[in-house]
Amino acid sequence: MQEKWNNFVYALSEAKKKGVDEDIYHEKIENQLQFLGWLPYKGDICHKPNIPIGNSNYIQPDILVKKEGEDQFVIEVKRPVHSQSERERVQLESYMRQLKLDIGIYIGEHIEVFYDMPKCKDAVSILRIPLELDNKLGMTFAEKFSKENFSKESIVAFCEERIKEMQRQSDLKKIKENLITDAQMHITESLKTYLLEKYEDTFSEEDIRGMLSTLIFTAKDKEQKPIVVQTTATPQPSYKEDVKTKTKAKYDYTKYSLNGGPWLGKGRFVHSLVSTYMEQHPNTTFQELEQIFPSELQGSFGVVKTMEYVSKNNDRRRYFDKTDEILRTGDGVFFAVSTQWGIGNISNIVRRAKNLGFTVKKDS
User: Fold this and answer.
1) What is the pLDDT of residue 231?
2) Fewer CB near the terminus (10 Å): N or C of the chain?
3) For residues 309 and 230, is the Cβ–Cβ distance under 8 A?
4) Element (DSSP H or E) covering residue 350
């Protein structure tokens, strides 16, 4: 596909260097489409067709591409030294909807593919490709828009996958920005949860918080080296120790056993409970599961949350989200169990477990 893309884009990139006018550029685009298999003599490429709309109106898109006589996609052409405007995107979208086409392509200073996503107010940009040789997205374009490969069904499927990937990248970007902005808080909280699980028999929560407050964590963008964010730890409140009573805050180390199983800390016990329930009732839907383990048993974070919710809210540190910890309901919803359990709410889930018929023992 690299050679096919290079053959297609070479004349367009040269036209951009020369700053040719729109008519010449338009002609070059129609010629270059032949490298992707679209042939004028077969009626594949329609140059500024007059298409009737209603009784007295008509539209005239720059290029309409057909396959075996059926409209496939429309192209809006602008000069290669042009700067795309909102008006031109709206114009292309209008052609797409008038012709009932899912796909429209803008070719000017770059190539941009738009998809008229169902139930979406505006057409969505799914590919934006510079006019350069050996471009990876360009090779994808050459593959998907070659006549031999092209079909409305396959291109829509490709667009849907691109939107999912773009959303995934957008979510990752937000998480990254959030980490840079609040590095100290996120790293400290994540480490606190990890250390409490690992050393809960040795150190209290107060010990671990105090130790973490002596550390400073930083985060920086590897691709944009000038951006470095450093924050200091939030000072821990000081407590005056009464010499006479000399008391120390204690951490609740109680462990729980489900149906005679191993002794587990609070969070692992709740995860085991929900996991066991799903094994015994595999057809349970997520909506039903939320009723069986309602949010008020835990508090503000809930007992279970969908992975979509956890990712969207950048809240993974409060849920068991490793691959082998994520669970699935009978209706196909992937979800995570909260890790946020302490002396104030664990009794709620223990009562619910017993009401559901489970045997629960605790060891202080």
Assistant:
1) 39
2) C
3) no
4) helix 346-355
